[in-house]
């Protein structure tokens, strides 16, 4: 029996009782008593039937991101989606980073979360257990693992994120040449790439893999991935009009449409990436072998 049908049974019983009282030879006081019961029950049920449930009242939502696989893109997309549906920052929406830099971790009990460099197969199992019957909806971008470390070197080599003591402690990557820096980033990012691969090589039913390369290559690719994401997250929990509003909101994160929105200059110089990639075959063989394995498991050709 559905929850709605179960809630209706007392109402149906009262309706029958009230109808019987109307046609039966009962006192005015008894008639009024049944009428009052009926009106009270219909008032309560009507409020429940028309309460404005939000999707995050039904499921827990988790956007996951990994360093140089579209972290800021994921944050922008996730926030745009749920802001458009009325979610409140710090109340409905939280974030957790590994490690927790100042201002990056807040509202850990919120039903909508972004986890950065944190989500692993082990944590996925714990998150599912914590979600219980409400269940999770998890989504994240996947990028070619070798492209991730190439991008990380170019990004930190030009002095970005001096506060990042994992991938750029004390800004030392700026002093490294391509091979040294590429090897350094590959070693530092190994746990992150391993977790990304473990989650997305065979995604669970509650998990959606988004294609970073397709999303960033063109606006058509961006829209295609966003439509897929919106459908996965909400199914029939939002209206067609809300879907259109959400898609429109996400498009602010599309740098092909809005290049000026890359205000922190997260995109790297293509020449730097091309030059750095030439040093990939010269990386230590055991380290390179792990990244080739990650590529294969995620469906990327060696590059």
UniProtKB/TrEMBL annotation:
The keyword Endoplasmic reticulum does not apply. It comes from the Eukaryota. Residues 255-275 are annotated as: Disordered. Residues 1-24 form the signal peptide. InterPro entries: P-loop_NTPase. Keywords: Signal. This is Sulfotransferase domain-containing protein. It comes from Symbiodinium pilosum.
């Amino acid at each position: 029996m559905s929850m709605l049908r179960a809630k209706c049974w007392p109402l149906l019983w009262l309706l029958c009782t009230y109808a019987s009282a109307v046609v039966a030879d009962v006192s005015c006081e008894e008639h009024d008593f049944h009428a009052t019961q009926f009106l009270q029950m219909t008032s309560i049920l009507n409020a429940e039937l028309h309460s404005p449930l939000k999707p995050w009242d039904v499921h827990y939502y988790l956007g996951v991101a990994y360093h140089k696989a579209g972290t800021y893109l994921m944050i922008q997309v996730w926030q745009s989606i749920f802001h458009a549906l009325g979610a409140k920052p710090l109340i409905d929406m939280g974030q957790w980073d590994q490690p927790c830099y100042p201002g990056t971790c807040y509202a850990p009990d919120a039903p909508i979360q972004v986890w950065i460099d944190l989500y692993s197969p082990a944590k996925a199992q714990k998150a599912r257990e914590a979600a219980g019957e409400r269940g999770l909806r998890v989504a994240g971008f996947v990028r070619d693992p070798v492209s991730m470390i190439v991008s990380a070197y170019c990004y930190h080599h030009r002095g970005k994120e001096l506060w990042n003591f994992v991938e750029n402690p004390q800004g030392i990557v700026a002093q490294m040449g391509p091979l040294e820096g590429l090897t350094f980033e590959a070693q530092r990012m190994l746990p992150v790439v391993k977790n990304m691969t473990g989650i997305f090589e065979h995604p669970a039913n509650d998990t959606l893999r988004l294609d970073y390369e397709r999303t960033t290559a063109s606006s058509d690719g961006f829209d295609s991935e966003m439509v897929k994401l919106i459908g996965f997250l909400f199914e029939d929990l939002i209206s067609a009009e809300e879907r259109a509003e959400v898609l429109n909101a996400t498009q602010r994160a599309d740098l092909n449409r809005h290049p000026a929105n890359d205000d922190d200059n997260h995109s790297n110089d293509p020449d730097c990436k091309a030059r750095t990639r030439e040093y990939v075959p010269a990386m230590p063989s055991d380290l390179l072998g792990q990244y080739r394995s990650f590529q294969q498991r995620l469906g990327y050709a060696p590059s």
